[in-house]
């Protein structure tokens, strides 16, 4: 669907995209995950030929895209970061207007507009002007305007920024539904939880570079952070900590402030093994906490900083 090779984009002295490569296959929900300023919006603008770039190539549906490639652009739905709707039109009129840019036939359009309204849950607000809508509803209207014509490819640039949890869930579920109905999705975000929740493939971006690509499981396997187990234990001696370090799959164990923290490589038995050892040694323990690595761990290990730094 999209093939980007060696893309370079500068804004004056700022190198926004640095030889970026990316390939999106049909049917994917492709996440571009990166902190603010990593180049996500710039990639989107290059895919849409809204920006001139300095080097490289961008192919959409197998063709080099140009500003006048309307036959390609009409198969793409875009939901930009900044809400772009007409203040003087109602909710219904806005969706109808944007859908009308692609679908001139009235009857067909009416059906599509109604589907988009139901899909974004805006039925109660059809006569409202945008300024009367809450932030979350406004975002949903923005989405309805971008997807009503049922495009083959949908690009959403941070659609959940400043959105309440209820609207956020509705938006995320909606994106999965659009994908199930056949649209390929490109989704940019700096929220790793969202990207983990919905994306089938993820590229991690930083400073205009694509640092790693894969499914969330593949990305997590790339780093050694592994499973993290935290156990409250009041007593533990150095010999016992040393023994824990030699347990299978354990690569670090630290006891600090009456809290044992163990990092292990992936294995379903890590927690059981560790608790068995503590029981066998009659070491009392309180709260037990275990978590798998997150995409933030991946980002941290690759870049040396957290996603939200
Ligand atoms: N029109 C512009 N003029 C100058 N610099 C720009 C312009 N647009 C973006 N940049 C810079 O290019 C880099 C990439 O910005 P971009 O907006 O693509 O990142 P982003 O990952 O989408 O971040 P955000 O989520 O904050 O929009 C940043 O350093 C940004 O300051």
UniProtKB/TrEMBL annotation:
Cleavable signal peptide: none
Source organism, top-level taxon: Bacteria
Transport keyword on record: yes
PROSITE patterns: ABC_TRANSPORTER_2 (PS50893)
Nucleotide-binding in keyword set: yes
InterPro entries for the chain: AAA+_ATPase, ABC_transporter-like_ATP-bd, DrrA1/2-like_C, P-loop_NTPase
CDD domains: ABC_DR_subfamily_A
UniProt GO molecular function: ATP binding; ATP hydrolysis activity
Domain ABC transporter: start-end pairs: 2-232
Keywords: ATP-binding, Nucleotide-binding, Transport
Entry-linked Pfam families: ABC_tran (PF00005), DrrA1-3_C (PF13732)
Protein known as: ABC transporter ATP-binding protein
Organism name: Faecalimonas umbilicata
């Amino acid at each position: 669907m999209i093939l980007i090779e060696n893309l370079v984009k500068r804004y004056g002295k700022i190198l926004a995209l640095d030889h970026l490569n990316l390939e999106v296959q049909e049917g994917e929900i492709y996440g571009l995950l990166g902190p603010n300023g990593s180049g996500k919006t710039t990639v989107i603008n290059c895919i849409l030929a809204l920006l001139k770039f300095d080097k490289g190539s961008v192919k959409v549906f197998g063709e080099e895209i140009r500003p006048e490639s309307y036959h390609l652009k009409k198969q793409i739905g875009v939901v930009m970061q900044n809400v772009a709707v007409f203040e003087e039109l109602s909710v219904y009129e806005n969706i109808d207007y944007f859908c009308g840019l692609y679908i001139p036939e009235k009857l067909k359009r009416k059906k599509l507009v109604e589907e988009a309204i139901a899909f974004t849950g805006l039925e109660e607000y059809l006569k409202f002007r945008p300024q009367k809508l809450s932030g979350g509803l406004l975002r949903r209207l923005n989405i309805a305007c971008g997807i009503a014509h049922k495009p083959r490819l949908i690009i959403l640039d941070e659609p959940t920024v400043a959105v309440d949890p209820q609207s956020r869930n509705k938006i995320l579920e909606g994106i999965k539904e659009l994908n199930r109905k056949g649209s390929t999705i490109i989704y940019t975000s700096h929220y790793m939880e969202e990207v983990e929740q919905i994306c089938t493939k993820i590229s991690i971006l930083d400073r205009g570079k694509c640092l790693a690509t894969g499914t969330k499981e593949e990305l997590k396997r790339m780093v050694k952070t592994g499973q993290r187990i935290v156990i409250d234990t009041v007593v533990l001696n150095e010999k016992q900590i040393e023994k824990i370090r030699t347990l299978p799959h354990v690569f670090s164990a630290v006891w600090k402030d009456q809290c044992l923290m163990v990092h292990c490589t992936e294995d379903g038995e890590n927690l059981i093994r560790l608790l068995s050892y503590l029981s066998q040694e009659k070491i009392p323990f309180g709260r037990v906490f275990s978590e798998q690595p997150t995409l933030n761990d991946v980002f941290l290990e690759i870049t040396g900083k957290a996603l939200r730094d």
